Amino acid sequence: MSTLYREPYRPQFHFSPPAFWLNDPNGLVYHKGFFHLFYQHHPFSTQWGPMHWGHAISPDLVHWQHLPIALYPDAIAAIFSGGVVFDADNTSGLVPGGGLIAVFSYANQTQGLAFSRDDGLTWEKYSGNPVMPAHGEHFRDPHVFWHTPTRRWVMSLAVADCVHFYTSPNLRHWEFAGAFSAGHVAGLWEVPSLLPFEVEGKTVWVLLVSVLKAGPAGSGGLQYFIGDFDGHLFSNHHPPDTVLWADFGPDNYAAVTFHNAPHNRHILLGWMNNWEYANALPTRPWNGSMTLPRLLRLEKTPAGLRLCQTPYPEFRKLRHPLLITTTHTVPAGDNALAGLRGKTIELVLELFHPQDFTLVVHQGAVYHTRLTYDAARGTIEVDRTRCGDTAFHPAFARLFSAPLPAGAGLKLHLFLDESCLELFGAEGQTVITALLLSAPEDAGLELTAPQPLAIRHLEVYALHSIWGAPHSPHATAL
Ligand code: FRU
Which residues have any ligand 1 atom within 6 Å of their CB? Predict the structure, then answer.
C-alpha cells in the first residue's frame, strides 16, 4: 500500500499537496460543478521558491483531485497570488462564449492575466502581459470581482500597508479608483479581498486583509474591516483603532473565498501556516496545508456586526460516531472523554452555563496540547508549548488566547487533524487555527473541570481520511 498521505503529521481531512511546498490559496472559484483550488506552489522543494500555481478540484470541498500545475513562471517572472473570475460576457475578448480568467501578480509586482478555454483545465498567458506595471516594492495580490452597479471589474491590491482599488471594463486596462488604510495594525498587508454581505436588506462590505507582522497570536493574522463600498472607495464603519480578527490563532493566513459558490455563499479557505516559521516546518515530503473551508456570515452581536465562521457542513459525511451524549454532569476532576482516543476528531460540546474546564488533546506520555476555558475572564487559551516537535523554530512554542463570549450556555466546535486544531466558539465569532506537531501515537483526549461539569450535549466523532478509501486509522473507541 502506498504510504503517500500516511506520513507522520500528514493532515487526513485537510488539503495538502502530494509533495513539496504550498502557501496561499489562489484563484478560488466554483465553475461547472467543481470547486477549483489553485495555490502558491514550489514543485521542487519543501521551502518557498519560484512560485507556480498548483491546482486541484473538488465536487464537494471535501475530496480533492490533484491536477497538473496550472501556471508556470515565464519570461516576466514567477507567479504570485491572485484570483480567478468567470468572464461570462467575454468583456476581456480572451474567452469567446465566456470563460475563466486568472488575474495574478508576477514576482516583480506587475500584474498579469491568463485565460482558460477548457473550464480551467489548461491555461494560456495573455500576450499583452503585464497588464499593470509595478508601483513600488509591495504591489500585489489582485482580487477581482464584477461590481454590478457600476458595471466594472473591481480589483483590490495590497500596496505596502494599505489597499488600493482599481476598476476596469475588460480586465486588461485598469484605472486607479481609491485607497484604504487603517493605520493601526502596523506592517505589511497582503492578499486583500472585498466581500458583500446582505444585512437587513442592505449591502455591507467586509474587507479581509492578511497582516504580516502583527497578529493576535504573534506575527501574521487575518484582519477584517466592515464598511461601505461605492465601486471606488471603501469606508470603514469603525474608527481606525478598532481591530477585528477573523482568527485568533497563529496559522490562518492569506485566506480568501470562492467566487460564484452555489447559493451565493462566501466560503473561506486559508493557508494554515505562518511566515515566521513556515519554511522550517519538519513535514515531508510536503510542506503546507489549507484550513477547513468555512462558511462566512455577518452577524449582529451585542458588540455590533461581526464576521462569523462555521465549518463547511459537508464534512459531516466523514463522521464516525465515538460518543453521543445528552444532559449529564461529570464529577469534578473526572475525564468526560475517558476511553476515547483519536487524532482526527470532531468534538461538539455544549454546557448549560459557562464554567471553567480544560480540554487536553493529542495527549501522549510526555506531550499534549491544552485548551483552557476561563469563565470569569470569558477567554479560551491554547497552549501548544508542549505539543510535540516545537524545536524546529523558536517562535512555534506558543500560548495564545481568544475572547469567547458566552450567553446563557457555552458552545464549542473543535476539529483535530494529525497536525492541527481548529476551534469555533460563540457561534463562529471566535475562531482559533493552530498547527500542532504531535507524534502519531499521541492520541489521548481529556476533558476535565474543577467543578462538576454540567454538560447539555457532547458529541465526539472520528473523521475518516479524505485520501484514499474511507477508514479511520488513527481513531478508536477503546
Ligand atoms: C502571502 C504572499 C503574497 C504573495 C505570495 C508569494 O503569503 O506573501 O503576498 O503574492 O505570498 O508566494
Answer: 23-24, 40, 51, 80-81, 105, 140-141, 190-191, 253-254
Tens of pLDDT, residues 396-424: 999 999 999 888 789 999 999 999 999 99
Number of H-type helices and E-type strands within the chain: 0, 36
In DSSP terms, 266 is beta-bridged to none
* DSSP assignment string, 432-465: EEEE----TT--EEEEE-SS-EEEEEEEEEEE--
pLDDT of residue 283: 98
DSSP-based helix, strand, coil % in the chain, nearest 5: 5, 50, 45
Q: For the residues 19-46, what does the mean pLDDT come to?
A: 98
Q: Whose CA is nearest to atom 8 of ligand 1?
A: 190
Pick from 222, 202, 406: which is nearest to 296 by CA?
222
Question: What is the spatial distance between Cα 99 and Cα 303, in angstroms, rounded to a whole number?
Answer: 42
The residue to which cell 506575527 is assigned: 219
Beta bridge partners, 425, equal 412, 430
pTM: 0.96
Q: What CA–CA distance (Å, rounded) separates 94 from 71?
A: 17
Report residue 241 as a C-alpha cell: 483603532
CA separation for the pair 207, 226 (Å, rounded) = 6
Which residue shows C-alpha cell 490563532?
249
Instruction: Examine the residue annotation and report whether 89 is marked as an active-site residue of this protein.
Output: no
Alpha carbon 301 to its chain's center: 23
With the most atoms of ligand 1 within 8 angstroms of its CB, the residue from 20, 71, 191, 273 to mutate is: 191
Element (H, E) at 228: strand 221-229
* 477: pLDDT strictly greater than 70: no
Q: What atom of ligand 1 comes closest to residue 24's alpha carbon?
A: 7
Work out the mean pLDDT of the chain and round it to a whole number: 95
| 247: DSSP letter | -
d(CA 460, CA 473): 16
CA dist 126 and 296 (Å) reads 33
Atom of ligand 1 nearest to the CA of 40: 12
DSSP letters for 162-223: EEEEEEESSSSS-EEEEEE---SS-S-EEEEEEEEEEETTEEEEEEEEEESS-BTTBS-EEE
pLDDT digits (tens, 9 = 90+) for 378-392: 999 999 999 999 999
Q: For residues 348 and 322, give the distance between their C-alpha atoms in angstroms, rounded to a whole number.
A: 12
* 20-31 vs 286-287, strand pairing mode: parallel
Cα 190 to Cα 91, 155, 271, 309, 426, distances in angstroms: 28, 14, 13, 21, 28
